[in-house]
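#structure-requests
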Amino acid sequence: MKESTCREWIDNNIKDMMWATGLMAWKIRFIVEELEPRHEGETRLGTCDSDYAYEDACITINNEGIRDEAHLEKVIRHELLHLVIAPYESLAHGYLQIVDDQHVNAFREMERIARERTVLNLERMLDWAKRENPYKNVEHGGHTLLTQEAKEDEANQ
């Protein structure tokens, strides 16, 4: 997606998204630029760096990886949800100061997984809140997650 299109969409929609996530007190800057992958084959769509103590954040969006406006909205929402759980991320970073060197990498990985799973679960809650029936198949990251109703339907066929 073009950088100017991303910026225009952000300018027109970010206040509503900040209200919806309870982040109106935060000062959030947006950067739109290509993000370097952390490892081969990875496409990073967004990052969020924040200072919870001051409710200050910078969200970077990789416009090269954004397909359309709906995709941009999902990526921004994901990054905003990281700010919603910022108190827990701040706590985890504090624990890193007291974890011994032998366990620091394991702790970082456990914290990363917990953080991303929490944001994913919040995204699902928001997605399901928009649907008439929240127990249908849910698309996420190119995967179809079968819910209980979908599993029962498959079993009855």
